[in-house]
Design a protein that fits this description.
Layout lengths: L1 H21 L12 E10 L4 E12 L3 E6 L8 E8 L4 E11 L2 E6 L2 H4 L9 E9 L3 E5 L3 E7 L1
Antiparallel strand pairs: 1-2, 1-9, 2-3, 3-4, 4-5, 5-6, 5-7, 7-8, 8-9
Length: 151
């Protein structure tokens, strides 16, 4: 009887641990920042020129960010690594590649293409998160200030 009880308890503990492992998922680092955003406009800081955008999108996740043109502008789509610095107040995009299928195609993204999204470097761009309320977000790098709306 005692042996059967110990076996039952062991099975329940094992099942509980298995369920815990199955239910683990990667939660967003900053749920207010991560998600799908439409780039409304960006201002080039050196010239104070504001560019209105036509259906340009940012898809930001904890590991990967994609910028894409859904407006037929011919700007292409690019993928970068995503990271945070300064207690998650700085959003970092690095190692931009040209989008190819469901991943990148291994080719470095052209800086001229990235500028259409308010980004001036394929190696690394750091955006200070100026404002983010889950509906709108303002990011600023040394190149541009971006205004995005949750999609």
């Amino acid at each position: 009887m005692l042996k059967t009880k110990n076996i039952s308890i062991s099975i329940y503990v094992l099942l509980f641990l298995c369920l815990q492992l199955i239910s683990c998922e990667k939660a967003p680092i900053r749920s207010d920042v991560e998600g799908f955003w439409r780039l409304e406009r960006y201002t080039v800081l050196s010239t104070d020129e504001t560019i209105e955008c036509n259906r340009l999108y940012y898809s930001i996740t904890r590991l990967v960010t994609e910028v894409s043109d859904k407006g037929g502008n011919g700007f292409g789509a690019y993928i970068a690594r995503t990271g945070y610095e300064d207690n998650e107040n700085i959003l970092v995009f690095s190692d931009f590649k040209v989008r190819g299928g469901t991943a990148d195609n291994g080719e470095d993204a052209p800086v001229e293409g990235l500028r259409n999204y308010g980004i001036n470097s394929r190696e690394e761009t750091k955006f200070r998160i100026i404002d983010c309320n889950g509906k709108t977000m303002t990011l600023e790098s040394d190149y541009a200030r971006l205004e995005l709306r949750k999609f």
